């Protein structure tokens, strides 16, 4: 297949491009490099441009040979979305509509969308399945849910098939050591802990130890980046085969507290580092764990990195062999 990966220079997108190319697909990455890295696109063709730019999109779609689009080019920082909602609505909603318009113009009917556990808001129950109420509590979550709703309507009206994949906590790095997580600023727990372990950061701050969990720290469901990408590949095949849209929650189905993640990182890295307790971060639910039963059954998907140690190990290798040397 020929697949356009929008945001293919970012963390999840770059791993996806590699997996698709290795599976024999023709891949084009479109990325404006606002957060992505040119050197993270190691396979296929690269086009520097914005997903909200009609002309760039028309030039990519004009040959009529693109079978599917995967869209990873979302802004992802919850806190920033609260302070700068316009930025989030413009990129995550308006520009995505421009991309969808271009797909309709060129009759490209298969779309895979990076969605998020943030569409569910404060959980009513856990683990969270696809039927859970969808009431986001921040602009980031709103933008992702809006596009899911747009996609429901576009399926009915235009026959545009979509699969929305709600990620819980994407983590880890390419086991070959070619790719990994490189956010600036870094806000995610595992890379921050590993920066502390490698000495690039003074300490790791725990945002709240008074939650209603076993050890008082927040519990999250960490899923390896390659397992996420595999789910995308399977979802695309299934969507084309069934000619039907779908929505899946993607996680390991197991929760780990912030303190447990720190313990695993200590064991994997063999390094000790300072841990400080800070106030809660706004908008953090105590527990976010996926019920990924539907994805496992419908896609015959089974995460390979089922334990946290193996996930953190790949991220640690990336920290030591790549980031530390920058
Ligand atoms: N967290 C923390 N210290 C940090 C970064 C994150 O204690 O420096 C906590 C955060 O409060 C959350 C969990 O780690 O409970 C995972 O946060 P992350 O930002 O990695 O992902 P999120 O769950 O927000 O998508």
Summed up, what is this model?
This protein is an alpha/beta fold and 326 residues long.
- What's the CATH topology name of the largest domain? Rossmann fold
Main β-sheet description: 7 strands, parallel
Radius of gyration computed on alpha carbons: 19 Å
Q: Give the termini separation.
A: 35 Å
SSE topology sketch:
Elements: E1 2-6, H1 11-22, E2 26-31, E3 45-48, H2 54-61, E4 68-71, H3 78-83, H4 85-105, E5 110-116, H5 139-158, E6 161-167, E7 169-171, H6 189-198, E8 203-207, E9 219-220, E10 222-224, H7 225-242, E11 246-250, E12 256-257, H8 258-269, E13 274-278, E14 287-288, H9 293-299, H10 308-321
Parallel strand pairs: 1-2, 1-4, 2-3, 4-5, 5-6, 6-11, 7-10, 8-13, 9-14
Antiparallel strand pairs: 9-12
This protein binds uridine-5'-diphosphate.
Task: Provide structural commentary.
The strands form four sheets. Strands 3-2-1-4-5-6-11 form a seven-stranded parallel beta sheet, sandwiched between helices. Strands 12-9-14 form a three-stranded mixed beta sheet. The chain has a two-stranded parallel sheet with strand order 7-10. It is an alpha/beta fold and 326 residues long. The longest helix is centred in the N-terminal third of the chain and has 21 residues, at 85-105. It is globular, with a radius of gyration of 19 Å. The chain has two domains: 2-171 and 223-250, NAD(P)-binding Rossmann-like Domain (Rossmann fold, 3-Layer(aba) Sandwich); 189-220 and 253-325, UDP-galactose 4-epimerase, domain 1. It is built from ten helices and 14 strands. 39% of the residues lie in helices and 18% in strands. Helix 1 (11-22) links the parallel strand 1 (2-6) and strand 2. It binds uridine-5'-diphosphate. The site of uridine-5'-diphosphate (UDP) has 14 residues, from helix 6 and strand 8.
């Amino acid at each position: 297949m020929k697949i356009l990966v929008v945001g293919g220079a970012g963390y999840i997108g770059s791993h996806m491009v590699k997996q698709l190319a290795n599976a024999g697909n023709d891949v084009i990455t479109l990325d404006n490099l606002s957060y992505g890295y040119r050197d993270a696109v190691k396979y296929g063709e690269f086009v520097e441009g914005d997903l909200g730019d009609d002309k760039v999109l028309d030039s990519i779609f004009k040959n009529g040979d693109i079978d599917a689009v995967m869209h990873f080019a979302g802004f992802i920082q919850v806190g920033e979305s609260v302070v700068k909602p316009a930025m989030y609505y413009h990129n995550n909603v308006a520009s995505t509509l421009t991309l969808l318009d271009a797909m309709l113009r060129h009759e490209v009917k298969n779309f895979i969308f990076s969605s998020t556990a943030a569409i569910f808001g404060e959980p009513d129950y856990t683990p969270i399945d696809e039927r859970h109420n969808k009431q986001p509590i921040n602009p980031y979550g709103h933008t992702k849910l809006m596009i899911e709703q747009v996609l429901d309507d576009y399926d009915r009206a235009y026959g545009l098939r979509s699969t929305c994949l709600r990620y819980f906590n994407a983590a880890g790095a390419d086991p070959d050591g070619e790719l990994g997580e490189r956010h600036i600023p870094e806000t995610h727990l595992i890379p921050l802990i590993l920066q502390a372990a490698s000495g690039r950061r003074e300490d790791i701050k725990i945002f709240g130890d008074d939650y209603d969990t076993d050890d008082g720290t927040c519990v999250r469901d960490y899923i390896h980046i390659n397992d996420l990408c595999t789910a995308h590949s399977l979802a695309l095949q299934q969507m084309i085969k069934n000619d039907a849209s779908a929505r899946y929650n993607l996680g390991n189905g197991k929760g780990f507290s912030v303190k447990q993640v720190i313990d695993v990182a200590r064991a994997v890295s063999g390094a000790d580092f300072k841990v400080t307790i800070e106030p809660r971060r706004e908008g953090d639910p105590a527990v976010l764990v996926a019920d990924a039963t539907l994805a496992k059954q419908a896609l015959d998907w089974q995460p390979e990195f089922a334990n946290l140690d193996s996930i953190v190990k790949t991220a640690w290798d990336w920290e030591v062999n790549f980031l530390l040397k920058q």
